[in-house]
């Protein structure tokens, strides 16, 4: 009985944190509720605009492969020349989940302060490496 109680204490939080995030027809849903849209940038392979349900641009995500690294660059859609952060070894779906859980993209829209804060947490190791190589 004691083991069952301990097991339940571990399983309940896991179930509460697991959101179902899906992308269908470029619409992102969280637990069946529409969150945002993902629109391809036709001019740049592997790049997307994340837009709200009214087509207002939130962030711009660009896939890069440089030397031994492959990563997403996440940029503020208002200021594309500012790289907020880069995320290696991830998929578009897992990146959306990370941004949602960090409070960057919410059902109310885009939270720029949370994007900046989250960017500081994950850092910019690939930008620094690329800058040190001076081959971009």
Give the % helix.
25-40%
Helix-strand topology string: HEEEEEEEHEEHH
Strand content: 35-45%
The largest β sheet comes out as: 7 strands, antiparallel
Widest beta sheet: strand line-up: 1-2-3-4-5-6-7
Task: Report the mean per-residue pLDDT as an integer.
Answer: 77
Radius of gyration: 17 Å
In whole angstroms, the N-to-C terminal distance is 61 Å
Number of domains: 1
Q: Tally the helices: what do you get? A: 4
Describe the structure.
With 136 residues, the protein is α+β, with helices and mostly antiparallel strands. The protein has one domain (36-133). The protein is built from 4 helices and 9 strands; from the N terminus they run αβββββββαββαα. The chain has a 7-stranded antiparallel beta sheet with strand order 1-2-3-4-5-6-7, sandwiched between helices. The longest helix has 16 residues, at 2-17. The radius of gyration is 17 Å and the shape is globular. 18% of the residues are buried. The model is unreliable at 2-16 (pLDDT under 50).
Q: Which key terms come to mind for this protein?
A:
two-stranded antiparallel ribbon, 9 strands
Summarize the structure.
The chain is α+β, with helices and mostly antiparallel strands. The protein has helices at 2-17, 92-101, 112-122, 125-133; strands at 21-24, 27-30, 33-40, 47-51, 57-66, 69-76, 83-88, 105-106, 109-110.
